[in-house]
## 1
Amino acid sequence: MSGYDSSPSMSSSLSRRFSLFEMKSATDNFADELVIGRGGFGKVYKGSITDGENITVAVKRLNPRSRQGAREFRTEIEMLSRFRYRYLVSLIGYCDQSEEMILVYEYMPRGTLADHLHKLGKNYSAPLPWLRRLRICIDAARGLDYLHIGTSIQPGKAIHRDVKSSNILLDDNWDAKISDFGLSRLGPEDEAYSHVSTEVKGTFGYLDPEYSLTRRLTRKSDVYAFGVVMLEALCGRPAVDLSADEEQWGLAVWGQYCIREGTVDEIIDPSLREEIRKDCLMEFVQIADECLHHLPRKRPTMAEVVVRLEFAMAMQEGNDSSIVFKPVKSALALQEQEDSSDIVKPAKMTRKVQPYFSGTTSGTIKSFRICLIGTVKCINLSVPTISIKVASLLPNFEM
Ligand SMILES: Nc1ncnc2c1ncn2[C@@H]1O[C@H](COP(=O)(O)OP(=O)(O)OP(=O)(O)O)[C@@H](O)[C@H]1O
């Protein structure tokens, strides 16, 4: 029996149900040469199915022994059958036969935003130009806005809960789409700040501190994570970098500190310095800073983020030739400078990770690195699902 109960309400007429035989022939019996990626819940293969014509697909084979995986498998099908939009990756179908749980997606040939930002030199030779990064951010923001609010034709009302650069996929035209809905939640129905109480889930480096503390999940937790993605795009740094100096381990805190100190130039991706217009950079940095505000209600909605990113893009595309890089402070930073209690200063961290909050909760850390600072040793762990005492990798705040 499969770990997934495929009641008729679960499967959508829009998603095709494949047999295991079809999945094996699509992936040459799950051949290793066809593996294009690995996530915490299994391998992803490049495959081919026929539906009148040959279609290239991405086949995600989940670990059948993972109970958590079974839940996420069901959620992914429910969400992607309900929400269909050009900025969300499309689910073509699924297979739930003989203990197997397999998802079939449209194939995204240019991989993930994370690949292009953090795997330069491996699969990708040239850094992404600034305009492309901006467009990718706008596409991803549109996808999230749709998920949060929907359109007049199709209401949204969901929270993604695992927004990160490795869940932003890129197609042939560099159009970006949000993927990985296994952790997402439906609701709440009404205004942006209403919440649902849930176990704390997500990925370190992107977790909204307020959600981590209170378990009150709102759309603003996605906005926070999106702010981290924006900083990644600007800086070319991962959300958590344990090989950096201790005060720079968490990009969210480090980035905000630099924004408020007017030292963004220290962390901006060097390949972008000649490209970014000052006014565009100011706007971009200000949006990111607001997305990362410690109070969820002070963060913008994704709809506002879309509009403002489009504005930033218009600035970048303007004809004015004053493309200069100068350190900037966001308006928010300037406004809050008056209130010193709001200024976040990353303190020098002690060697051991400081708990930013505590409490036993279930975290889906699908893969992370433990780096022994000062040595070159890195251990890659892949843990399907674990229960943890949550300790954020963010440094302590000096108040
Ligand atoms: N639709 C797709 N088209 C092309 N490649 C894909 C697609 N979906 C996933 N991949 C590749 O497979 C990799 C693993 O994806 P997956 O969603 O399983 O894990 P992840 O999001 O990277 O990590 P995790 O889900 O564990 O947090 C991705 O990084 C990407 O390279």
## 2
Amino acid sequence: SRFCSPACKIEVPERLTVSHEALVRTGLAARCVSIAVREATDEEILLVHSEEYLEAVKKTPYMTLEDLMAFTQQYGDVYFHPNIYHCAKLAVGATLQLVDSVMTGRVRNGIALVRPPGHHSQKSAASGFCIFNNVAIGARYAMQKYGAKRVLIVDWDVHHGQGVQYCFEDDPNVLYFSWHRYEHQNFWPNLRESDYDSVGKEKGAGFNINVPWNKVGMENSDYLAVFFHVLLPVAYEFCPDLVLVSAGFDSAIGDPEGKMCATPDIFAHLTHLLMNLAGGKLCAVLEGGYNLTSLAQSVCQTVQTLLGDPAPLPADLGGPCESVLKSIHCVRSAHKQYWSSDLPASELSAKSLKVAEQKTGNEPEAQEQRSPEEIVWPEPPKRLCPPVRTAVALPEGVACPDACKRCSSAEAPSSLYSLSLHVLCECVCAGSVCRITVSLYILVCVIVCRAVHVLICVCVCVCVCVCVCLAPQGCSDVAGFMQAVLGLLLPLGYEYNPGLVLLVRMPGSGVCESVWQQLAGLLQGLAQGHTLVLMQVRGPVWVKYSPVNWWMCIQDQNWQLCKCTNSCYQQAEYIRYS
Ligand SMILES: NCCCNCCCCCC(O)(O)C(F)(F)F
Ligand SMILES: [Zn+2]
């Protein structure tokens, strides 16, 4: 008979079946390429684990029950049964198959739904339901086989992936970020090194980021605040070649382990905010998640964003709570010496503190009394799946290198009103197109602003347009600019939830392409992706044609507006337009 320590009973096979069934039921599975799984080889497992550990695990299929129980006793909160070695090899193999598919460009991104999970397992030890460290092996594999120089691992599971931390703590090529329920070391795995002051060792100092949750009941606003003020500024500065996500969904509402209050739709935004990194190369690998309802919803929200569908903002976003503000402050101080992107932490806390005070105490006494099964939350809202992701208004006779949907040719661009009004209202508000790019010969801010005024009157949804006139000259202070976008513009935008984003690029602003592209990509998280891009550049420019729905227009007669509509994204490549 199978034995299992009571701690493990939540890690059940239904976790995978309900997730997959939800993907099929919602039609998301049909939009995905499914990748065959395989067993990992010894060599691949040895990228992270020791020979003696691997040899010991190899014996488990042939152990008697008492030997198996003895073997298990030496580890914490993990169970072995005769078939778990096979399953653990499949979990690693599936992860590596996903890494192959993303690194070769066969797919842009993807998710590996695997059991057993991995992020607690260590060089020579199993731990917390984990046998082999799927994500750690994936990172080493990507670096060895594909020459990935820098790998970012984002661990949004509610437990600290100490196994990943130990594996890379002295390695500056792997940036490990984890938030986790900590409660001042009173929550499993109760480790001192899970706190914010574990920043990495020797050459790896600065490349390990721990954000402890010292209270339960964390909400969407808390998660976004940590992304905006801790993870994203560093991730953009790190500039990874690949993003791996230890996608544990026990950080969602209803989970018996996490006891948090963030709703499943938050994972749509966490995923979106990571998709602009590494040219969109993102591999999500399932870790935890034990409430089968919130797990399935969270998986679907993640996959739908990976497919490029825009997401409505979660309801009533505000600032982070007091406890999170302290954690943010502590971890930013601990990392200040390693990273240049650093808003004066005082400014950040001052603004958010004010908001935090306004927040009613969100201590979930009530939540703690209810059992996890009794906790209910609204189904995530239905999401747009526009048949065309981007449309462009092109001058006559200019072909676009991609299958753009052409809007009816607008009047002479001198009358911006009609142009943007016509283009915008016909397409965006009808929801048939997600974004509009309108290129103009003449771009005068005052017209744009007045057009915005007009648009506000006309559009059915109340538009608080986030109208950005790009500031920096050239790429000199990209870090500073990105910090302003991440630390100020995005939090504001998410809080004010505009109905439309109007992105204005002044001629000659000289902003380098990558910044413009990042900005365009990040702002698509607002207004369900309804973005109106008005821009003009002089003369020939290099365009980084990457899978983030990129626009460019060029003055003079031979305009080219390029962007990516089709869902299977091209490899990033440089195209010179003359
Ligand atoms: N209340 C019972 C105590 C359970 N203590 C062990 C928790 C293990 C968590 C595993 C996980 O969720 O982090 C993973 F992603 F690895 F699966
Ligand atoms: Zn977990």
